Amino acid sequence: MVQSAVLGFPRMGVNRDLKKATEAYWGGKISQKDLLAEGKRLRQEHWKIQKQSGIDIIPSNDFSFYDQVLDHIQLFGAIPEKYSKYKLDPIDEFFAMGRGLQKPQTPEAAAVDVPALEMVKWFDSNYHYVKPTLQDGQEFKLAANPKPVVEFLEAKEAGIITRPVLVGPVSFLALGKADRGQNVVPISLLHKLLPVYEELLAKLKEAGAETVQIDEPCLVFDLPPKVKNAFKPAYEKLASLGSKIPQVVVATYFGDIVHNLDCLTPMSSLYGIHIDVVRHPEQLETVMGALGPQQVLSVGIVDGRNIWKTNFKRAIETVVKAIQKLGRDRVIVASSSSLLHTPHTLESEKKLDSEVRDWFSFAVEKTKELAIIAKAVTQGPASVREELDANAKSMESRATSKRTNDPKVKERQSKITEDMFNRRSPFPTRIAQQQELLHLPMFPTTTIGSFPQTKEIRVQRNKLTKGEITEKEYEQFIEKEIQEVVKIQDELELDVYVHGEPERNDMVQYFGERLTGYEFTTHAWVQSYGSRCVRPPIIVGDISRPAPMTVKESKYAASISKKPMKGMLTGPITCLRWSYPRDDIHQEVQAQQLALALRDEVVDLEAAGVYVIQVDEPALREGLPLRQGLERENYLSWAVKSFRLSVSGVKDSTQIHSHFCYSEFQDFFQAIAALDADVLSIENSKSDAKLLKVFVDEAYPRHIGPGVYDIHSPRIPSEEEIKDRIQEMLQYLSPDQLWIDPDCGLKTRQWKETKAALINMVNAAKFYRQKYAKSS
Ligand SMILES: Nc1nc2c(c(=O)[nH]1)N[C@@H](CNc1ccc(C(=O)N[C@@H](CCC(=O)N[C@@H](CCC(=O)N[C@@H](CCC(=O)O)C(=O)O)C(=O)O)C(=O)O)cc1)CN2
Ligand SMILES: [Zn+2]
């Protein structure tokens, strides 16, 4: 029979229970015991859901209190000494690595002050993982009570035999890096890491695990030869343990593996391989052709990255193709990736229009889809006739619905001309005019847009949503917040102000709620990092802007501040990538529709007297196709064009800023430069000087503010630390082009630490301003 499998289930729970529990624990409101109990409750609940849906292969160890890669850092004892030296409780050490820890000395314990480990995007998703940070001479050691074994046994006790999920040894190292000042090449540590896997796998077998899912998603990249060559010996070594370890399914996702197929085949010792055929259906044939005679293929056919209902007819056709070649017992139908990237359940959405609701499927619904597909191909379509008919009807309804198509938008797109992609004059002309208007000092200081989203702000917004206060009252509250942040920026003596974004729930969702063509949800949260979640709006039809979206707040802010006020927008690519996009038209078309809507907003802001406008594109890098080649070039071309289309409607004297976080700029520099933004602010504080080096090598001609401190952690950077950062930057960038700013917006921080950090930042900027004033 054809089995159904889930590669991973969302962890947050139906009401973001995990977020609430971890934040309560961090805030000292619940005990460690309570936190651990809540984790256990959530795991049980999620296993039960999958069991009830009829899933045959249910994952364990997909749960994490922060991030699954961080779990493995601790599992393998790859904990940098700067954390381990404090001898914290395992769970506190774990959170210290995830989010940093700053604690005053107490009679019982020494003071603690460590920054978080670097956190980066998980492939091309909006999920973030913690980067393994390795030392020269790194050793590994399996943790006592290994989490995968504990959680396997926990499920077993509840009557469910699960398939534990592990991050594979090659991907674990390939996704890691050498610590600052260390020279180790991570993959060279594989021979030291493998014995720990062997020990772990043997323990899982002993506990009763029949199969494990070992994730090796790095197989979808173009791999350096050292990494590529590491696969075969590693997996052959594991296979040589025979029945001492569980059967191994190697899982890949978010791309195709045809170019790396020789890493896994023919390797008859491997029980099975999982591939993502939602993203790359064409790899199916090739992978099937390369399998050994017994090997199992897990066909990832239900999308783990989007919320559209699976087209049963097409999915079944694909699975049947696999069955014809391999036979029923060698085919598994699976989610394309972990379902982590989808919201928990559609059941919670009470406000969705019934027409579009019928087009969606969230994690719980996807588990049911998998069971139906497996049944259809095992027992025949008649066994699920009703479900198949209902699905065909949904597909038909979406394909023919009037609400997806807006001829006015299409007409405007057809009339776009070349000059709409270009500013009027080149940068030197523009910056001279901007300087005349803005009179900024050397080393201008600014922030990235948001200030702390306090409890009070969220409560007021919640009241508005529930109708407990009027629009007018909410508006007055927001104006008061803006007054407050303007006053604080006066006190801090920043140079370019922001209004603080208090009116925005999220930088993408806020725009989604104001654009035609979007649907938005009330409970559809997905984890972004740690306890932080987002509620991606859903693009269902052609996009347009019925009315200005940000002008009222920015205009008000500009009117009450004595220094330049920066308007704040989210760029077209970020709006696209952090939404659930349509899958019925190309993303390029969706990005262009967003760009036209934003272009109108930019022009309206300028007309309202806002002469510095930042258009954030933090997701531009993340959208880059994972492999080199034509697909990447195409993406960059349309992505850059949509940014330029959105900002090029303004005068030379209006200063366009853009902001990037989570970017590795090495393979991306040309695109950044091609945006032609007057000022860039980029996340930098955790990624070492290698990032800056690119800007020197490529002689970046415009203004730039590499972040001087990490905002993801509550830790306050000292003035000295920030000065050192600036000193480092001055080795690469000229003092005339350098801006001083944090890594990203401050919405997740508290006011106390925000003010303290910004005071240090402004002082550091003043120090260099003086130094260079004297020397010039
Ligand atoms: N979409 C997106 N992706 C991004 C980022 C981003 O800003 N947006 N930034 C980067 C880092 N990722 C981040 C992701 C989330 C958050 C974040 O702060 N999320 C908030 C939720 C933000 C939000 O939408 N808040 C809503 C709803 C808030 C809420 O929880 N309301 C309560 C009720 C109010 C209360 O009593 O507190 C409820 O619904 O239960 C609002 O402010 O209106 C959180 O998890 O806490 C920050 C960074 C990369 N990706
Ligand atoms: Zn950012």
TrEMBL record:
Comment on bound cofactor: Binds 2 Zn(2+) ions per subunit.
Biological process annotations from GO: L-methionine biosynthetic process; methylation
Domain (Cobalamin-independent methionine synthase MetE N-terminal) ranges: 4-324
GO MF term list: 5-methyltetrahydropteroyltriglutamate-homocysteine S-methyltransferase activity; zinc ion binding
Binding site for Zn(2+): H659, C661, E683, C744
Active site: H712 (proton donor)
Enzyme category, top tier: transferase
Biased composition (Basic and acidic residues): 403-413
Binding residues annotated for L-homocysteine, in chain numbering: I448, G449, S450, D616
InterPro entries according to UniProt: Cbl-indep_Met_Synth_N, Cobalamin-indep_Met_synthase, Met_Synth_C/arc, UROD/MetE-like_sf
Cofactor: Zn(2+)
Residue positions binding 5-methyltetrahydropteroyltri-L-glutamate: K19, N126, R532, C533, W578
Binding-site list for L-methionine: I448, G449, S450, E501, D616
Pathway in which this enzyme or protein is active: Amino-acid biosynthesis; L-methionine biosynthesis via de novo pathway; L-methionine from L-homocysteine (MetE route): step 1/1
Keywords per UniProt: Amino-acid biosynthesis, Metal-binding, Methionine biosynthesis, Methyltransferase, Transferase, Zinc
Pfam families, per the entry: Meth_synt_1, Meth_synt_2
Domain (Cobalamin-independent methionine synthase MetE C-terminal/archaeal) ranges: 443-766
Purpose of the protein: Catalyzes the transfer of a methyl group from 5-methyltetrahydrofolate to homocysteine resulting in methionine formation.
Family the entry assigns: Belongs to the vitamin-B12 independent methionine synthase family.
Protein name: 5-methyltetrahydropteroyltriglutamate--homocysteine S-methyltransferase
Source species: Cladonia borealis
